[in-house]
Design a protein that fits this description.
The protein is mainly alpha-helical. The protein contains two helices and no strands. The relative contact order is 0.13.
């Protein structure tokens, strides 16, 4: 997804990904449309994975602080994809 477009929420991204998978599994699409949807699906999958990793990092930070809710900055390594 281009950076100038707003990323979908995690839940919305999963819904879109499920719709793409369903369309691809139906097998009624042209090769060109299938490749386009596959590319969109890969991008959505990467976006959702990054959002999930960010949420996991926040949970780890809270757990390390003994449950005290204290905002801490963190960096997500985008090179692990």
């Amino acid at each position: 997804m281009p950076d100038d477009q707003q990323q979908p929420s995690f839940e919305n991204g999963l819904e879109k990904l499920e719709a793409i998978v369903q369309q691809l599994e139906d097998g009624e699409l042209s090769l060109e449309r299938s490749l386009d949807l596959f590319e969109q699906g890969v991008q959505l999958s990467q976006t959702c994975r990054k959002q999930l990793e960010a949420a996991e990092t926040k949970v780890e930070i809270v757990m390390k602080k003994g449950g005290d809710l204290e905002a801490q900055p963190f960096e997500l390594d985008d090179n692990n994809g």
